Amino acid sequence: xxxxxxxxxxxxxxxxxxxxxxxxxxxxxxxxxxxxxxxxxxxxxxxxxxxxxxxxxxxxxxxxxxxxxxxxxxxxxxxxxxxxxxxxxxxxxxxx
Length: 96
Prior knowledge:
The chain is α+β, with helices and mostly antiparallel strands. It has two domains: about 1-30; about 30-80, Single Sheet (S-adenosyl-L-methionine-dependent methyltransferases). Helices cover about 25% and strands about 35% of the residues. It contains one helix and five strands; from the N terminus they run αβββββ. It has one helix at about 1-25; strands at about 30-40, 40-50, 50-60, 65-70, 75-80. Strands 1-2-3-4-5 form a five-stranded antiparallel sheet, with no helix packed on it. A hairpin with a 7-residue loop joins β4 (about 65-70) and β5 (about 75-80). The longest helix has 26 residues, at about 1-25.
């Protein structure tokens, strides 16, 4: 019986570092922000696990606005302050 208790205690001590490492991975849920400029606009792209979910556009001399996903598709973004306005994204040419 003593041997079994010691083995259980040793197993518990061996599992604690694994649980701590798993908790560290879960807590690393902060978004990745990529900032670049296009003309007179500053664009910040927010990604979670590589998935682009929001874009903040800050035009020079105007208030910033956010583009967020309207649904799960790749190209369908809406302005957060004007949700009825869809942002067009057309393919003009495509080669296969």
